[in-house]
Specification:
heterodimer; A: 115 residues; mainly beta; seven-stranded mixed sheet; four-stranded antiparallel sheet; 11 strands; B: 113 residues; six-stranded mixed sheet
Chain lengths: 115, 113
């Protein structure tokens, strides 16, 4: 596997379910990101992890809980979601140097539908 | 707060037509600018980027963009589109503080064969 992979690709869940999204990067990067892509809205940055520490939480509700056990894996744990949380969730990774941007590589996304 | 605006949500054009997508940003400091493309069913991928130097940057697949600092703009252009350019295009701005990439709302481009 190369690049950034995400599983599952599609997920349908009820509002009372608990599920997790998984992201894995095979690029040797040290930063990982969760984005939310909703219809008719800009791509929204949710969380940033750099060197396995969360460095940004962009006012995301607590029903979304990220976990970064190592630099290659990133999870997004979901519980008691709302229908408005239905969206495409994108994971990305980059090699971060202080204050200097390096290209973010995106995964294919998980299409989440909350019933 | 920093924002990125893309003027058109949807663009429909015929093959061989010229394409220009507008992008404006509000951040006044030093910025890095990007255009990403998302083809149907595929990952977001980088089309081109501007860090410094020549404000006219060339990317993949015949795309180019021009950074006009005085207008806070970074418009994307392609002189002659193909059906395979059908995709959604996103402008993005990076500021070093916070290691944050801010995206515009995207423009869906449909090229009719």
């Amino acid at each position: 596997e190369t690049g950034v992979t995400q599983t599952p690709r599609h997920l349908v869940m009820g509002m009372t379910n608990k599920k997790s999204l998984k992201c894995e990067q095979h690029l040797g990067h040290n930063a990982m990101y969760w984005y939310k892509q909703s219809a008719k809205k800009p791509l929204e940055l949710m969380f940033v992890y750099s060197l396995e520490e969360r460095v940004e939480n962009n006012s995301v509700p607590s029903r979304f809980s990220p976990e970064c056990p190592n630099s290659s894996h990133l999870f997004l744990h979901l519980h008691t979601l709302q229908p408005e949380d239905s969206a495409l969730y994108l994971c990305a990774s980059s090699q971060e140097h202080r204050g200097r941007y390096n290209e973010q590589f995106f995964g294919p996304g998980t299409r989440l539908t909350v019933l | 707060a920093q924002s990125v605006s893309q003027h058109n949500h949807h663009v429909i054009l015929s093959e061989a037509a010229s394409l220009e997508l507008g992008c404006n940003y509000s951040y006044g400091g030093t910025v890095n600018l990007f255009w990403y493309v998302q083809y149907p069913g595929q990952h977001l991928q980088l089309l081109l980027k501007y860090f410094s130097g020549d404000p006219l940057v060339k990317g993949i697949k015949g795309f180019e963009a021009e950074f006009i600092k005085s207008k806070f703009s970074f418009n994307l252009r392609k002189p002659s589109v193909q059906w395979s350019d059908t995709a959604e295009y996103f402008c993005a701005v990076y500021k070093a503080a916070g290691n944050k990439l801010t995206f515009g709302g995207g423009t869906r481009v449909l090229v009719k064969p």
